Structures are given as C-alpha cells and as structure tokens.
Amino acid sequence: xxxxLKQRLTGAVILTCxxxxxxxxxxxxxxxxxxxxxADIPEPPRIELSDITxxxxxxxxxxxxxxxxxxxxxxxxxxxxYEASPDFILxxxxxxxxxxxxxxxxxxxxNATRLRTQLREQNYRCYILYSKTSDGEIFRVFVGPSxxxxxxxxxxxxxxxKFQLKGRIVRYRIEEDREQLxx
Length: 183
Fold this sequence. Notes:
The chain is of the alpha+beta class. The chain has a domain at 98-181: Alpha-Beta Plaits (2-Layer Sandwich), CATH 3.30.70.1070. Helix content is 44%, strand content 19%. A 5-stranded antiparallel sheet has the order 4-1-3-2-5, covered by helices on one side. The longest helix is centred in the first third of the chain and has 25 residues, at 3-27. 11% of the residues are buried.
C-alpha cells in the first residue's frame, strides 16, 4: 500500500474512535435534567364515585319527559277538506297544470341572463330554458310557474309597464326542468 493511503486510513480510524467516545458525552443530558423530567409528571387525578341507583335515574328521566312535554307546542288539527277544493288541476298524466309567462327568446345566453337578473331584482320568480335548434341554441326567459292564469295576466301587465315587454302565457312542463339554466 501507498504511504499516503495508510496515513489517511489511520487518521480516519482515530477520528472515528474520538467521535465514538466524545459525542455521547456531549449529547447526553446531565443527571439533574433527567431527574427534573421525571419529577414533572403530575399525580393521577382522583376519581370520586357517587352512589347512583336505578331509581334515581328513572326519576330524572320522568322529570325530563315532563319538562319536554311542557315545551312542546299544542297540536293543531287542520280541518280543511283539501280534496273538496284543490289548489291545482291535474292533467291526464296526474301532473299539476301550471302556467308560465314567456317574455323573450334569445340566441345570446348573456342577454337572457341579463333579463332574468333584471326581473329578479324586481322580485319576480323567473327561469331560463335552453333548447338546441337547427339555427343554434335558443334561450327563453320565463316568469312563473303559477297555477293561476289570472295571476300571470296581472303580472304580464305589470311587466309590460316596467320593462316594455309583452309576454305570452304558456303551459309549464315539469319535464323541461332538466333544460333549466341556472335555476
């Protein structure tokens, strides 16, 4: 072997031995620190058991039931016969007949959304339906639905005065819900 290599190996062995001896002394905590850590452990909490009987628990349950019954509202029975005067009419498929007021058809989604926003600012319930045609997409703006055509006629007059839009009353179809745009 070469002399330089022997000197390097000897130096590496000596440094490793010194590290093995000195590092544990430097990194090890003192006895006082170990004793203090052990002394910082708190005493376990003391648990006091009270004598509870089944009768006490049953008595508390009865009291809680009485208190909750006192807070319940009185039961009110509605005696109205809804079958005699239905609020809606059913078609041949047993679906309610409702009506909507169509105010416009747009090729631009932005224009339809703008009109819907203006109507909602005036507290009208409205929605947009879209459909695909050979000319592209059509976005229709509706107010409603309502079970009363008369209410929509009144709304149509109001909207015509406020927005200068003449609408037409059309049948609302539940199956068109899947084509609604943004609620």
